[in-house]
Design goal:
Layout: H1 3-12, H2 47-63, H3 68-99, H4 102-107, H5 109-140
Bound molecules: zinc ion.
């Protein structure tokens, strides 16, 4: 039996699949060989591993979106962060300019971080999706 046949047999018999790329995974594997997604049972329960697993999903959705639905999801998730950050900056910048207070300036750093994370997540995801679609069209013609 070839390796390909063995993989097909595993799939048909209900072998575990990677939740990110649907590649068959070996029982007990902690990461997918193809895409690197965390597969541990503990990734769903332990706080640190759970953060890594969720971070992987966000990272993959931003870096390699393959459908418009992924981009729309990123817009929803990161849009909330971007809007919150921008509204905070809208309030914070005039306060800093008026009072010129160092403590007030330092307290606004999280607002800047929120805005940067939100806007850059949307921008990177959208740009990567546009580039992906352009490559698909280029290969089709
Ligand atoms: Zn995978």
């Amino acid at each position: 039996m070839s390796k390909e046949d063995a993989e097909c047999r595993e799939i048909l018999e209900g072998a575990d699949l990677c939740l990110c790329c649907l590649e068959p995974v070996r029982p007990g594997a902690s990461r997918c060989v193809k895409c690197g997604a965390p597969l541990d049972f503990f990734a769903a329960t332990l706080p640190f591993l759970r953060v890594l697993a969720e971070g992987f999903v966000y990272h993959r959705a931003v870096q390699t979106p393959r459908s418009w639905w992924s981009v729309a999801g990123i817009w929803l998730i990161f849009g909330e962060t971007a809007v919150g950050g921008l509204l905070s900056l809208w309030w914070w910048v005039p306060m800093v300019l008026e009072f010129r207070n160092l403590e007030l300036l330092i307290r606004g750093i999280p607002f800047v971080a929120l805005t940067v994370v939100g806007v850059s997540g949307i921008a990177i995801s959208t740009a990567n999706y546009v580039a992906y679609r352009r490559c698909l069209r280029g290969n089709a013609s």
